[in-house]
Specification:
The structure holds 2 protein chains of 2 kinds.
Chain A: H1 4-17, H2 19-48, E1 51-57, E2 72-77, H3 82-92, E3 96-100, H4 106-110, E4 114-116, H5 123-144, H6 149-155, E5 163-164, E6 170-171, H7 173-210, H8 214-218, H9 223-259, H10 269-279, H11 281-296, H12 299-327, H13 335-358, H14 363-368, H15 375-382, H16 389-417, H17 427-435
Parallel strand pairs in A: 1-2, 1-3
Antiparallel strand pairs in A: 3-4, 5-6
Helix pairs in contact in A: 1-9, 2-9, 7-9, 7-11, 7-12, 7-13, 7-15, 12-15, 12-16, 13-15, 16-17
Chain B: E1 3-14, E2 17-28, E3 32-36, H1 43-50, E4 58-63, E5 66-67, E6 76-79, H2 91-101, H3 106-119, H4 135-147, E7 153-157, H5 165-180, E8 184-188, H6 192-198, E9 201-206, E10 209-215, H7 216-223, E11 227-233, H8 237-247, E12 249-252, E13 262-267, H9 274-284, E14 286-292, H10 297-307
Parallel strand pairs in B: 3-8, 3-9, 6-7, 7-8
Antiparallel strand pairs in B: 1-2, 1-4, 4-5, 9-10, 11-13, 11-14, 12-13
Helix pairs in contact in B: 2-3, 2-4
The chains are: A mainly alpha, B alpha/beta.
Chain lengths: 436, 308
């Protein structure tokens, strides 16, 4: 008899009807969005303030580079001593005073530029001032050496090596970053999903043991059916929660940003710089590359691989969580068995970050994209860079094979473990159980 | 009488530990079969083998003449000793779920549940959660779950634990009624008085071996010691006791009676008959009590375990 649908239905319904599950599902995105909104609101308050920076330029070399912008106003002081200027700025309570002294040479000059303020100035303000000054002083130096600035500008050449694979796929640096971002997102998603919902499966099995219903159930259904039912039912509840999170999250995001008038991508000094850069034709080219990069991704391959490796990896780990749940009596006893599960997962993510970035098709990344316990994460990170189909298929088959093995192993532990009460098993005992 | 369940030389080892050593039992159809034994004897393992929860290492089990298969779970109702229900699930939903796992359709299960809930007067619990019920109430639900699919074979492991005397009686009557309606019952317990009351066959398992099996009356006959409990009135009880002891193997005993008679246990040897004893006693005084001592299930249990 196949009771699997019935078990899945019960597991799913009990999970989604559970009060704490409902509260978590609704509250988590609200809390998240509220946090983002508060942070956004506060930083906006901060940025809405217009900064006034007073400039005392005794060298008279850089006076014309200080143009007012939306958030920064420059107040040029003339014919005052440094001490007077300091007093003026302090009394006016403006942001600060930039002092450029008069010196014989520019090299001497740069050593004496100073910024006075009441509080430590923001890093972005200082670096923006520095870059303004650097540009201007470099030009001045060049002019002093008798170089025609216009010719120099005209002679500037930008090289951007176009990359193309032998089969004609165009790639670029941006492409790589884009792929990397995609791979990291997929890998992290899987990692989070396994940890959150794997634990949920484990807890639900422990609950079944502590409520002592297991023997009644097990006299009607096969343990493996019960285990699979639990894994699938809990996963479906997990997917439901994830989808609801995304829906509530995006609705709230729209509502909050529209309603409170908080532009979450608000104008910060950094963004200003970004925008300026965008006007630059070279960067605009890069943007086009970015769009091209998206289309360059092997999308169909990615989607299929994502679904398969996600499910495979998730099932592999959740069967291990189920086995642990069956082996112990309460959650505190799970600690000793958690490490071997978490380790390969963490390892996979680190390998993804450190070696796939460096060399997506290098030996290390290739090997780990075949080892079943790390392959879901590592392979998902590699695929955007283009992995031969045979490698993907082989890796997936290995994953499925290992999954079957772990299910068999978990089912063995499960059959014996669910009927064992009162003692905390050791690894030695678990191996003995497999032989029962 | 045909046997509903036969276990043939069932063995089960857990590592180095032998839980069952070639245990065979035959449970006649329509009987209440007491499966007895001290703690850790292997009773629960045997029951789990019958329920296909544990696979035996050797031997086989026949249900109604067929080797056990997975569809047989529908014909077995099992109330384990370690029992429980999903605490946060509503009674009605939970019982329906468990009934469906036993192969009943939802509609059929609902009709039968209504009958049982009315019968046990628990109809208004339908929408309560298990955690709101007392232990005894939950036990009643568990009983309903066990019998709902009208199995041929019912297995009860300590069914009366947790019940007050009134409910224990109620459950006992239900078990007897189910037996009368054709079910066969295997009954595992330590409580010998309920064995005495209910069982017509017993098997005793001790240290993984079956040491005794058969009809309870046959076993009692086998274990009887030809001892008679007598009460006799006489003027000088000490002298009379002395006289009787010289002729028979007698010892002083005590039982409840209305008069102040001399109370003795007299064990007869094989060539002595009860009639000889009685006629001898009538010459000595007025016999007010004359009864053969039948060993109780408790005595048999203790003696059988000790002898092994």
């Amino acid at each position: 008899m196949n009771h699997l649908p019935l078990i899945i239905k019960r597991e799913y319904l009990t999970k989604v009807r559970n009060k704490s599950f409902i509260v978590m599902t609704i509250l988590s995105p609200i809390i998240m969005i509220a946090l983002i909104a508060v942070v956004g609101y506060l930083s906006q308050l901060n940025n809405n303030k217009t900064r006034t920076i007073s400039v005392l330029d005794e060298s008279e070399l850089v006076t014309d580079i200080f143009q007012n912008t939306e958030h920064t106003k420059y107040n040029l002081l003339n014919n005052v001593s440094l001490d007077d200027a300091k007093t003026i700025v302090e009394e006016a309570e403006t942001y600060g005073l930039l002092y450029i002294p008069k010196q014989d040479s520019i090299d001497a000059l740069v050593k004496h530029i100073k910024f006075y303020s009441k509080e430590t100035p923001s890093l972005s303000v200082i670096s923006s001032l520095e870059s303004k000054l650097e540009n201007r002083l470099r030009d001045v130096k060049l002019q002093q050496q008798g170089i025609d600035l216009e010719k120099l500008t005209a002679s500037r050449t930008k090289v951007n090596i176009a990359q193309e694979s032998f089969i004609g796929e165009k790639t670029s640096k941006i492409d790589s970053y884009f792929k990397l971002g995609f791979g990291l997102a997929a890998g992290y998603l899987l990692f989070m999903f396994i940890i959150i919902y794997g634990n949920m499966i484990m807890r639900s099995i422990i609950e079944e043991k502590t409520s002592r219903i297991i023997e009644v159930i097990i006299s009607s259904v096969k343990p493996i059916q019960l285990m699979l039912g639990k894994i699938i039912g809990t996963s479906l509840a997990g997917i439901t929660q994830f989808v609801i999170w995304i829906i509530i999250g995006s609705i709230l995001m729209t509502v909050v940003s529209g309603f409170l008038g908080i532009d979450l991508m608000q104008q910060t000094p950094q963004n200003e710089m970004m925008q300026k850069a965008m006007e630059n034709p070279e960067v605009a080219m890069e943007m086009q590359n970015l769009v091209a990069a998206f289309y360059n991704l092997p999308i169909a391959n990615l989607i299929i691989a994502f679904i398969l490796f996600f499910i495979g990896g998730y099932l592999l780990y959740s069967s291990l969580y189920a086995a642990i749940g069956a082996a112990v009596d309460n959650e505190t006893d799970t600690q000793q068995f958690m490490l071997p599960i978490i380790m390969p997962l963490v390892l996979a993510v680190y390998i993804g970050i450190f070696t796939v970035i460096e060399d997506p098709h290098g030996t290390v990344s290739t090997i780990f994209s075949f080892i079943p316990f790390t392959s879901p994460v590592v392979m998902l990170m590699r695929i955007p860079f283009g992995v031969p189909i045979w490698q993907q298929v082989l890796s997936f088959l290995l994953l499925v094979g290992t999954f079957m093995l772990t299910v068999w192993f978990a089912a063995k532990i499960y059959r014996v473990g669910i009927l064992m009460y009162g003692k905390k098993p050791s690894y030695k005992e678990l191996i003995k159980w497999i032989k029962y | 009488m045909k046997n509903l369940l036969e276990a043939h030389a069932v063995s089960k080892n857990f590592g180095d530990f032998t839980a069952l050593n070639k245990v065979s039992i035959s449970v006649p159809k329509g009987s209440i079969f007491g499966l007895l034994g001290p703690n850790g004897a292997g009773k629960t393992t045997l029951i789990r083998v019958i329920n296909q929860i544990t696979m035996p290492d050797a031997g086989h089990v026949l249900l109604d003449g067929e080797p056990l298969q997975s569809h047989h779970v529908q014909n077995i109702g099992y109330l384990p000793e370690e029992r429980g229900l999903y605490k946060s699930m509503k009674v009605g939903e939970q019982v329906l779920y468990l009934a469906q796992l036993k192969g009943l359709s939802k509609a059929e299960a609902k009709i039968r549940l209504k009958y049982w809930f009315d019968r046990l007067e628990i109809g208004d619990w339908w929408n309560k959660k298990i955690q709101e019920l007392s232990k005894g109430m939950a036990q009643k639900i568990q009983f309903v779950v066990t019998v709902l699919h009208e199995p041929k074979l019912l297995i009860f492991d300590e069914p009366f634990s947790g019940f007050d005397p009134i409910n224990a009686n109620l459950i006992k009557d239900e078990i007897l009624r189910l037996r009368d309606n054709g079910a066969t019952v295997i009954f595992s317990t330590h409580r010998m008085e309920s064995v005495e009351e209910l069982c017509d066959h017993i098997a005793l398992i001790h240290q993984s071996n079956k040491i005794l099996e058969g009809k309870l009356t046959d076993i009692k006959r086998q274990y009887k010691t030809n001892t008679f409990e007598i009460g006799i009135n006489a003027a000088d009880k000490v002298a009379l006791a002395e006289t009787i002891s010289q002729k028979f193997d007698a010892s002083l005993t005590d039982f409840r009676s209305l008069n102040d008679a001399l109370k003795l246990n007299i064990k007869l040897s094989e060539n002595e008959s009860a009639n000889d004893l009685l006629s001898y006693l009538t010459t000595k005084g007025e016999v007010s009590h004359f009864v053969e001592v039948i060993p109780s299930a408790n005595d048999i249990f203790i003696q059988a375990v000790k002898n092994n």
